[in-house]
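Reading group handout, session on sequence-to-structure problems. Before we discuss, look at one worked example. The prompt was deliberately terse, the way you'd type it at a terminal:

> structure SH3b domain-containing protein

The input record follows.
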Amino acid sequence: MMKRIILLIGFLVCAVPALYPREAEVKAEAEKVWERANTLYINGDYVGAAAFYEAIVDKGYISGRLFYNLGNAYFKAGELGRAVLNYNRAQKLMPYDKDVTYNLAVANGYVKDKIDTVPEFFLSRWIKAWRSSLDSNTWAARSLVLLAVALAGVLVFLLEERSGWRKVGFVAAVVFTVLFVFAVVFAAVEKRELTQASEAIVMVQAASVKSAPEKEGSDIFILHEGTKVEVLSSYDGWTEIMIADGNKGWVPTDSVELITY
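And the output record:
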């Protein structure tokens, strides 16, 4: 009986990777554009390189490396807002890439606004760090492995006659079911944060933040190019934003661009 259960677990675990396709490579029709963009960048034509990288994005091909190169091109071309925007996009797809993290930090160093963040409760910070240690696909794959082990525990509990093994099966089923739920939630949250459009970058040199969504609204403070904001809502050409220290206000929608793709 135990041999059958072990074989079942092995089969389910081995089958998991087949359910998740690998990240798609840039398709053949975009490879020439990619090579042309890289050549222009090497030759110092950063504006031209950025245009070719953008052409690849327009075709619907996205990758962390593409956004990273695009951020580099914009940074070299002196377009700070677009550089920060694309570094942030690259970081969403490659959160543990040291080059992306470093270049984003360098670009942020040129942003005029230095905003103190609101302190976060340590438990929330710990859970977030644990959750972001893996990407959504990895959490999803692990959730299936945990589910397989939990089901194996159920089988042991139901089919094994010896009480000792039944207890082991019961405990394993409960523990791995709980872990399965956590993995599914983490996968869903990571996927949502990857695709949601709740953050944006200021794209103009200076944007006056208004108290209301209208030109006549009083100025609360000013944000500068490259500053990251959280998008709260939108209304009639205006976007309500919140900065890292918790202050809120309204800016023209065309003065910010969402970190999405």
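Points for discussion. First: Residues 121-195 form one domain. Second: The radius of gyration is 24 Å.
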